[in-house]
Amino acid sequence: MMHFRVKSIHLTMLVSMTLVLYLVGLVLTSGIYLFALKKKFKEQIHLNIYFRPTTPPAQIFRWESQLEGTSGVRDVRYYSADDALRFMEQEVGADIDSVLGVNPFPPMLDVYFNADFVTAQRIDSLVNLLSASPYVRDVTYQRDLVKKLNYYLRMIFLVFGSLALLFFFISWILVHNAIRITLYSDRFLIRTMELVGATPFFIIRPYVLQTAIIGLVAGFLADALIVGTVHLAIQQLPFLIEAFSGRLIYFVLTGILLPLWGAFFAGLSSYFSVRHFLKMKLEELY
Question: What would you report as the CA-atom Rg of the chain, rounded to the nearest whole angstrom?
Answer without folding.
Answer: 31
